Amino acid sequence: MDLINHSSRRSAPGLIVVLVTMLGIAMPSSYAAVFMRSNDSTGSTLEVDALTTIADDTYIFASGLQMEGIIDGDLSAMAADIRVGGTVTQAANIFTQSYRQTGVIQRGLRLFSDNASITGVVDGSLLGVVNTLTFEPGSVIQGDSYVVTARLVAEGTIKENLWVVAENASVFGHVGGSLTFRGDRLEIGPEAVIIGNIEYRTDNENALVVDSSATILGSVLWQPPVIDTEGNGGFWSAVLIRVSGLLAAFLFGLLLIAILPRPIDHALRSLSTRAAASFAAGLVTAVSVIVLAVLFLLALVMAITGSAILDGNLAAVGALLLVIGTLLIPIASFGTVVGSILLYSGAIVVGMWGGRRMMRRETVSRFGMFVALAALTALFAIPYVGIVLAIIVSLFGAGAFLLGLRQSRRDYTSNDSTPSGDVPAVT
Predict the structure, then answer these.
(1) Cβ neighbours for 238, distance < 8 A, ≥ 6 positions apart
(2) How far apart are CA 411 and CA 388, in angstroms?
(3) How far apart are CA 135 and CA 171, in angstroms?
(4) 423 pLDDT exceeds 90?
(5) Is 235 exposed, middle or buried (0-12, 13-18, 19+ CB in 10 A)?
(6) Pairing state of beta strands 208-210 and 34-37?
(7) How far is residue 388's CA from residue 166's CA, in Å, rounded to a whole number?
(8) Which residues contact 218 (CB under 8 A, 6 or more apart)?
(9) To 10 degrees, what angle do helices 8-22 and 366-380 make?
(10) How many whole angstroms separate alpha carbon 138 and alpha carbon 154?
(11) Does position 138 have pLDDT exceeding 90, yes or no?
């Protein structure tokens, strides 16, 4: 269901905002930021008890998180199950399957979860991409709320505007601003209070159901869905494409580390110590891919032409063209595919390098790599400039990867049992 439609030019700047906000895990304001993780193999839950105060930005990767204390800074957490019953004095960035909040977040909340329930307080704005989201009675969102979900139940208080994309949304609480809805069905339940306007875009005007005891002080406006006749795609289509690409790059990066640990380690070292050589190698790779792609097309034309004239007066020429084309097609196609994989891996390698630098570790951090790739995804979404950045980053990374493969081959052929560079363990 295409809920919102904009032109591709309009969606790109908005996508940057969504990605940066979504992954709003910027570099820590102090390099003394706290990094915490649990042992995933034991399924342990990391606990911050009510007597604990962490006076800095905190980054957590764990199987589960139970936070009852105070985090005096930003909280960025990735875990299967997260429960926040304490206080976060700055913003919170949450990536989880299940989220429960009974505590206080004193700035904004960026939430990405399968199901979430909020009973506590968010003093800033809220951005949520959640399958099922519930604002329980007593919950308070002081700022604007932007929600993308399959099912929303809002029984608490949202003091500013509420913007929702959902299949179904039910509002039983208080909305201090306007309510904007895109989806299938919107219900305004008993005792609900909407101070501003209600604007809803659905297939059917009757998709809005308002209980007789509800209070709406503003106007109610229905708009039919916008049909994209130019094939530009919608804003959320662009977002989903970018996010899917981000996740694919992250998973491919983990695969590279698993099967080519030493070449990856050499590649990361090359980016730090041989940046110019890395860029030059990447440029050679890009030119080679272009040449091989052209050669593949020529070989294909030669093979087709040779087959066409094989039975005529030019049978000898046709046979020669067919043989040459048949020989060149697998060579050129293989080289093109390998070179394309190197160029695709380039940005991922740079993401690994950036994540390791950001986390100030010798090992490759999954969390750091994900954040770095997210930042690159946002930068690449900038119109025109993003294309140039993507090319430059890919060339640096692809060249470093190529140098890493070459160095690993040298280590292997020299029978060195302890080649330079440690295997980049993933944390």
Answers:
(1) 8, 11, 12, 15
(2) 35
(3) 9
(4) no
(5) buried
(6) unpaired
(7) 36
(8) 178, 194, 195, 196, 197, 198
(9) 160
(10) 11
(11) yes
Closest CA to 11 of 244, 246, 237: 237
* Residue found under tokens 């996508």: 15
Task: Give the ranges where 182-314 is alpha helix by DSSP (H).
Answer: 235-259, 261-273, 275-308
Cβ 155 vs Cβ 137: under 8 Å:
yes
CA gap 24, 370 in Å, rounded:
12
pLDDT for residue 426 is more than 60:
no
Q: Please tell me the distance from the alpha carbon of residue 152 to that of residue 165, in angstroms, as a whole number.
A: 9
Stated length of the chain: 427
* For residue 267, pLDDT beyond 60: yes
Q: What is the pLDDT of residue 8?
A: 38
87/10 Cα distance (integer angstroms)? 37
pLDDT in tens, 212-236: 999 999 999 999 876 655 545 555 5
Instruction: Determine contact, residues 126/107, Cβ cutoff 8 Å.
Output: no
pTM greater than the 0.90 cutoff: no
Q: What is the DSSP letter of 208?
A: E
Give the model's confidence band at 371: pLDDT under 50 very low, under 70 low, under 90 confident, else very high: confident
Rg, C-alpha atoms of the chain: 27
- The Cα 98–Cα 375 span in angstroms is 25
The whole-angstrom separation of Cα 263 and Cα 256 is 9
Helix, strand, coil proportions of the chain in percent (round to 5)? 45, 30, 30
Q: Looking at residues 322-332, what average pLDDT do you find? A: 88
